[in-house]
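pipeline stage [seq->struct] | target=PiT family inorganic phosphate transporter | organism=Sporosarcina psychrophila | residues=332
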Amino acid sequence: MDTILLLTILVVVFALAFDFINGFHDTANAIATSVSTRALKPRTAIMMAAVMNFVGALAFTGVAKTISKDIVDPFVLENGSLVILAALISAIAWNLITWYFGIPSSSSHALIGSIAGAAISAAGFGILNYSGFLKILQALLISPFIALAGGFLVMSIFKVTLKNKNLFKANKRIRYMQIGTAALQSFTHGTNDAQKAMGIITMALIAAELQTSDDIQLWVRIAAATAMGIGTSIGGYKIIKTVGGKIMKIRPVNGIAADLSSAMIIFGATLIHLPVSTTHVISSAIMGVGSAQRVKGVNWGVARTIVTTWIITLPISATIAAIVYQILNLFF
């Protein structure tokens, strides 16, 4: 079999594996708050998230096009298939490591750092599309702070609105509303996260000269959406525990405030074709909600671990990808 064709097939397989792992790694993002408040049973929440992730993944392609061309130009990248394969191996490895330890790490940071690291290892720093790459980095870095502020603002509004209400009765009614916000959260997760694998596969097809534009083919969209949906259906219970309970004690009103604020930010990023870390947006929204409720109520030790992982994921994944590329280059 032709080496480029073999590499392209491997890229498609590993990209779908990445999407599958992303599904169970990031399931907690969409449903942790609704599970922790017992608005939904874990299995019910996971199955709903799987369906809504699938629907969201099929609805948009803007983020996929950004991934496919804004980090490096696949039309000029030599050994493009090998670079992409190295990036996927690195991102999958980091996702599995952080999942094993129950750390809500960002699949987006891992993938984008890995693409950059593998490309630099192959062709030097000049290969990066700096305008596009910096735009993506800005979205990844700024969005958690916006989420923190958004969660604080929405929770503050809820506090004023519910000030004279019976908190027990209000929480009981809001618990039912959480089913809707969890579904919305899952949909927005699909609109942003599943597109990253679509963009990677499209990069590989362009590098192998199997297509000449950055359009996302229908089979790519369906395959990535299906992989994300199946992965989500398995669920990542370790991360659900961290996001849903270890950052702060979440009540229904806190959960719905976090879901609404983070869903708006993720969907807003999707509309302007920018990838964001759903993990860090939702975790930051929960921290913002907790700060509005009671600053001491937030477990800042867990928050510090999440932030530390947020900072180190890009350089670590880039380094792993650079090493993996050099190893693969010995064989191909």
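stage status: PASS
auto-comment: The chain has twelve helices and no strands. The chain has one domain: 3-331.
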